[in-house]
Design a protein that fits this description.
With 332 residues, the chain is α/β, with parallel strands linked by helices. The chain has two domains: 216 residues, Spore Coat Polysaccharide Biosynthesis Protein SpsA, Chain A; 91 residues, no CATH class. Helix content is 50%, strand content 16%. The protein has twelve helices and nine strands. The strands form two sheets. Strands 3-2-1-4-8 form a five-stranded mixed sheet.
């Protein structure tokens, strides 16, 4: 049996994705993997827009692609993945998001890596695109792919293949998924990272292959970005309480920075030295961001990045850090 004879289930969490769901389904239809061996399972969190109508329209127009929609009444991503996996029949599961667009060879490279034993969970690189045609959306997309915004998360910018802590979305054997217990539904974010921790604890590997590429649409504005990164920070601490040894420097810096600045601002009310020190730290921080933004603006020929990129990175850092610290205070 060849790789292309394998049965693959694409599992997709979904909620109010009327603007992008057909882009994803069209990308799946264009895969170089045999369409007869692909099924699509969409776990919909009871969308309130026209997502389901868009799915039905696509299914009616492209009957060769098997599409099944299951309800996700819990309306969380881990519950969606678990519900889709339970309804799947494929030997392999490939997890995608409703606001992503995989390259035509996405599935075939994932399955080839898995068959060749590269890792128990295989994933690739995000090609991050703006969520809207605005200057701030383009700045957010640039920040989401910049080391100052995301640290050493290789899948956002690296072209170096190898073993990593985590990959976006991921592909894995269905029997492995259920063997280690699926996604933890008590974690509303960071559920994929925690899933990968359990794979590694059983001796498995997480494999990053940059030739596996997927377009990912970043958040449209700073408000959406702030909510996203606040959730990341809040639930990261809950995951770290279970696996403290998985803490990485890129995860520790934002809450530490926010804590130092917060304490510094409070002490500044009583001490000139504290005020000077805090302003110095903030000044250096802003200069670093400004230097990076000027470089990006010149490289991308996008003048608005000079202000937009720092605004996006500041939003990411402070939202993540505040979410982490609030999680420490409110959830014991």
């Amino acid at each position: 049996m060849t790789i292309t004879d394998k049965k693959v289930s694409i599992i997709i969490p979904c909620y109010n994705e009327e603007s992008t769901i057909q882009l994803l389904l069209d990308a799946i239809l264009k895969q170089d993997f045999p369409i007869k061996n692909i099924e699509v399972i969409i776990a919909d969190a009871l969308s309130q827009d026209k997502t389901r109508e868009k799915i039905s329209e696509f299914a009616d127009d492209h009957s060769l692609l098997r599409i099944k929609v299951v309800d996700n009444p819990k309306r969380t991503i881990p519950a969606a993945v678990n519900a889709a996996a339970a309804a799947a029949c494929g030997e392999y599961l490939v997890r995608l998001d409703a606001h992503s667009v995989p390259y035509p060879n996405y599935i075939s490279i994932c399955i080839r890596n898995l068959e060749n034993g590269k890792g128990e969970n295989v994933g690739g690189a995000w090609e991050i695109k703006p969520g809207a045609d605005t200057s701030i959306a383009r700045a957010i997309a640039a920040a989401a792919a910049h080391p100052l915004g995301v640290g050493d998360a290789r899948y956002r910018y690296s072209d170096q293949m190898g073993e990593v802590d985590t990959v976006p979305f991921g592909s894995f054997r269905r029997d492995l998924f259920f063997h280690i217990g699926g996604f933890d539904e008590s974690l509303l974010t960071n559920e994929d990272y925690e899933f990968n921790v359990r794979i590694r604890k059983t001796g498995g590997k997480i494999w990053f292959d940059p030739t596996i590429r997927c377009i990912y649409f970043a958040r449209k504005n700073l408000k959406e970005l702030a909510k996203q990164y606040w959730r990341y920070g809040f639930w990261k601490l809950q995951m770290l309480k279970r696996y403290p040894k998985t803490l990485r420097w890129r995860q520790a810096l934002p809450p530490l920075f926010v804590f130092v600045i917060s304490i510094g601002l409070i002490l500044s009310l009583f001490s000139k030295f504290a005020a000077f020190s805090t302003l110095t730290i903030l000044g250096v921080y802003l200069l670093i961001l400004l230097a990076a933004s000027i470089r990006e603006a010149l490289k991308k020929k996008e003048p608005a990045l000079v202000l937009g990129l720092p605004a996006a990175i500041i939003t990411m850092h402070f939202s993540w850090g505040l979410g982490f610290l609030i999680s420490a205070i409110t959830r014991q």
